[in-house]
Structures are given as C-alpha cells and as structure tokens.
Amino acid sequence: MHEIYFKLALGLEPDFLFPLENVTIAQGRDAMFTCVVNNLGGYRVSGDSATARVAWIKADTKAILAIHEHVITNNARLSVTHNDYNTWTLNIRGVKREDRGQYMCQVNTDPMKMQTAFLEVVIPPDIIYEETSGDMMVPEGGSAKLVCKARGYPPPKILWRREDGGDIISRNGPQGKTKVTSLEGEVVNLTKVTRSEMGAYLCIAANGVPPSVSKRIMLHVHFHPLVQVPNQLVGAPTGTDVTLQCHVEASPKAINYWTRENGEMIISNDKYHMTEITSSAYSVQMRLVIRNIQRSDLGGYKCISKNSIGDAEGNIRLYEMELPHRKSRNEEEGDAASEESNDVRSSLQGPLRESGNRVEDAGFLGGGGPPASKSHRLLPHELFLITALMYAVLDISL
C-alpha cells in the first residue's frame, strides 16, 4: 500500500502511447523502431531514486542493445535517438540477415512493462550462376535439360519464358505433348527437340522483393541444311532482269552460294547480285538477280548450302520467254495496203464459169455466184468464146 502511494505521489505510471510496429526491410536498407512512452519523466523506480528508463533488447537472444540513448551492444550500425519528451527510436543501418528477429522496448517499472515487434529482413533474388545452365547445343531429335537456381528471401520462384514469345513444348506429361507460354520450376526438360524450339529461353527469378532477375540461355538445335525452291522453272524475256530464289534452313549457320549447272561458281559483279535475307535463327532466303539476261544466261542454276553436318542444293532452270509482238502504225498501214492489193489480184484471177449461153468472169465481170465446185473440160467452141472475150477486154483497155 505504501509502495503504490509512493508511485502515485510522484506521478502517473508510464504507459505506451502507440504499439511497436513490425518492420519488413530489404537487406542493405535502414530500419527503425519507434517507442513512445508517456509519464516516464517523473516516475521513480521502486526502491531507487532514479527515474524509469527505456531499454532496447533483442528478445530472441535476450541481448541488451541500449539503455536510454546509450548503446550497450558492440554494433556500430545501431544507434538510439530521443526527442527529449516521450519518443525513443532504435536505428539499424544497413540491415543484415542476422538482424532479423524480435525486438523489445522495455520500461523498468515494477512490474516491468514492454512491447515487441518483429524485424523481417528480405533479400532480392539473385541467380546462382554456378548452378544454372549456360548456352547449349543439341542435335535435332535429342533432349535438353535447362536448369536455373536462385537465392533470396523469401525463396524465389523460377519462371521460364521464350524470348520470342513462342511456346515451350513439353512431351513428358501425362497428357502427352503440351504447349505453354510459361513454365514454373527450376528445371525444364525438353525431349525430341525440333528446330522450331531453337532460340533464347529466359529464366526469371522473383520473390516479391524488387528487382526480379533473369538469365538468358540460348538453345542451339543442329541439323543438316534443307533447301526449298519455290519456282524451279523461271521464264523471262532477254534484255530484262530476273530474280532466282531459294529458302535455306540450317544450323549451325551454313555457307550458301550459287553456281551454274556446269559447276561454275557465281560471284557478285555487274551481271550478278546475290543477297541473303534472314527469316529466323536458322533460316535464310537466298536471292540471285541476273541483269540484262542474254541467251548465254539461259540454262540451269544451283543454290548450294553447306554446314558442318551436311549439305544440300536446289535446282532452277531459266528459259527465254517471248513477249507478244505489237505492230507499229506503219506496219499496220502496210499490212492494210497489202490486203487491198491481194483483193484486186484475186479479182483479176477469179475463175471463169458458164452461165446459160454466156460465160462470165466471176470476179472481173461482177459475177456473184460461187465458183464451180469441180472443173470440167472445155469444148472447142468454149475456148473460142473465151479467147474472143479476152481480146475484146484488151481492146477496151487500150
């Protein structure tokens, strides 16, 4: 009774104004706990002339860190600040994983008063390169095992994606062949790999603590060249330019070139222009432009592709295409005059025929009937009449 009276006479008992809050902080950042205590200044500790004090304690190890503003522990990263009224702040600079745990703000009343909060130290993800796959090469139809491991706290999750946005193909599941745009887990097993699966795979590690990290793993699929010819027979008029094309798929990268059918290699010059257009990681389009083609340029051409695994070729035959001839105006006028001359000539040379008791020249004398379907042998009197008629015509014209 006397003890309680003594305390009340000196003032109210200390009390915490706000609860101590938990702190989650990334490793390397600064953390702080703030403890607000009211009615501490005039309170005397029982049996002691000293006023009550605030102390900071690491609860899980029971180590005293600081009393009032004086740091007890041998840790240069710790400090305590006081605002000369009711607030005490514990500061931890550049927190480390070992700083994680329960922290206590304690007032040495009788009985003791205290409140606790937890310091969680999180660590951004980091790829463990010595345990993660590097770029790899596999033959087409073979298998590939991609491994990616990362450290951090909380433990990171691993997500796989293709850099080009393509599907990741799994053939080991209970459902057989499946295609997904992303896959979770440290290991990706690829079986019966095809050339379409070639490319960059991204291993992304994330645990909610920024930044996320990733590693790029290049998967090379090797196979011998394949040559496809869209047009094996190409026609063009002489004097024009023509383009020959071949599509090539090969990995590793192939050496591509053109030859004539006799094996003569073609080189770029004023006559020939060769280009390659990349379509994907393993395919290109070969183009050969032949300028101002002549008859000597006609014939067979070969597109050839060679890599360390094998070779392939495609064949194209170039032939001359004749354009339809368009007549000039002079030629058309000449043809018209020639047709008129032929008409006159044919009228002069029209067949003779007998009509009743007179004989007419079907063309010259205006006879309109068709020619006789078959010839007959002229009688002597008929020959006489024809001869007389011809002499009469000649006399008139003279």
Automatic annotation (TrEMBL):
Domain of life per record: Eukaryota
Species per Swiss-Prot/TrEMBL record: Iphiclides podalirius (scarce swallowtail)
Annotated keywords: Disulfide bond, Immunoglobulin domain, Repeat, Signal
Residue ranges, annotated region (Disordered): 325-367
Gene3D superfamilies to which the protein is assigned, alphabetical: Immunoglobulins
Biased composition (Acidic residues): 332-341
Stored InterPro entries: Ig-like_dom (IPR007110), Ig-like_dom_sf (IPR036179), Ig-like_fold (IPR013783), Ig_I-set (IPR013098), Ig_sub (IPR003599), Ig_sub2 (IPR003598), Neural/epithelial_adhesion (IPR051170)
Ranges of residues in domain Ig-like: 14-115, 125-214, 225-319
Keyword tRNA processing: no
Name of the protein in its database record: Ig-like domain-containing protein
